[in-house]
Amino acid sequence: MKNIADTVHIGELIAVSRFFQLNTYQMISLIEDGEMEVFEKKEDFYNKYGDKETYTELEDWCELNNGKIFTKPR
């Protein structure tokens, strides 16, 4: 298991948890379990999912102003 603190700052976690309507514990659990992904760069996200208008394979996704993208697959 990788250390989430190396990837996600607590402020990012709080902001994204509000977007997904989850608490921070739920967010950490989903990331640890691999049910939620964190991409450091938009290019990494595009490499996996492509550059599309809609992403039907994702329940939802959120891009922060620093370029990180959080995804919640279906």
Automatic annotation (TrEMBL):
Top-level taxonomic group: Bacteria
Protein's UniProt name: Uncharacterized protein
Organism of origin: Sutcliffiella cohnii
High-level lineage: Bacteria, Bacillati, Bacillota, Bacilli, Bacillales
